[in-house]
Amino acid sequence: MSEAQDQDQQPQFALQRIYVKDISFESPKAPDIFKGQWQPEVKLDLNTGNTKLGEDGMYEVVLSLTATVMHGEETAFVAEVHQGGIFLAKNLPEADLHRTLGAFCPNLLFPYAREAIDSLVTRGSFPALMLAPVNFDALYAQALQQAAEQPQQ
């Protein structure tokens, strides 16, 4: 095997592009929500998904974050970001590819999604919302465990 052919078989991973796929902010009770003492309750929903883009080892990974903030019984705001990335992931063993797309790529996308959420919130005239880091490796392991247990139930 030639050196070029050998190199074509080596595992490859590279970030190609990071972008906002979808973004939204709503504050249904503004301006009344700004009255009174600010004591928010934050609920964060996150989800990841990936799509193969053709046959050349390119994948789109999308991290979806939705922050719903309640102020008492009222919804103060809902901020949602779908942060996308295009990644080259070639010649990886199946388990490594699955972990890369399900945990490693979302780890790369999270800081961008977090900044986008914070920017939306401050533009809505609310205090900054700096989301805590997320351990996507632990979430990935938990999802694998749940998937393994599900057929048994």
Query: How would you write the strand order of the largest sheet?
Result: 1-4-3-2
As a percent range, the share of strand residues is 35-45%
CATH architecture term: Roll
- End-to-end Cα distance: 49 Å
| Average pLDDT level | 92
Count of distinct structural domains:
1
- Strand runs, count: 4
Spans where pLDDT lies below 50 across 5 or more residues:
none
Radius of gyration: 20 Å
Protein structure class: alpha+beta
What fold name goes in the CATH topology slot? Bacterial Protein-export protein SecB
Shape, per Cα inertia axes: elongated
Order of helices and strands: HEEEEHH
CATH top level is Alpha Beta
CATH superfamily: SecB-like
> How helical, in percent, are the residues?
25-40%
* Number of alpha- plus pi-helical segments: 3
Assembly type of the chains comes to single chain
Keywords:
3 helices; Bacterial Protein-export protein SecB; elongated; alpha+beta
Helices and strands, with pairings:
Elements: H1 3-8, E1 12-26, E2 40-53, E3 58-71, E4 74-90, H2 94-123, H3 136-149
Helix pairs in contact: 2-3
